[in-house]
Amino acid sequence: MTATPVHLPVNLGAATHSAPPLTAEQKKALANLHDAATQLEGVFLQMVMSAMRDTVPKQSIFGEESASESTWQSMLDDQYSQQMAGTGGFGLAAQLETQMRGLVLGNARNESHANVERGAQL
Question: Which of 17, 53, 58, 70 has the smallest C-beta neighbourhood within 10 Å, fewest atoms?
């Protein structure tokens, strides 16, 4: 299987002129991109935490883990992952935003109307 490369315009040199200001649609589209990338990072981190949690024995000195304890731990892991994604420390969302910025700005009319809930809990 061969992949077709996607070429995005990249300015590697010093800027000789300033970029035009962003329109309201472009600003909204970038905000939607940020929210979606942050949510995706949160989901990814939650999956990682869940996989890590599966490696820990379910039995302790207090006995077998109860269903309520498992539910609480899952909810806590979800909150941890959303907090980690929100701080940007992991960096997945920032990379996605950098890579997709040109595509989103090029299609700002449609992207500004994307249904992305700010701060949605997944």
Answer: 17
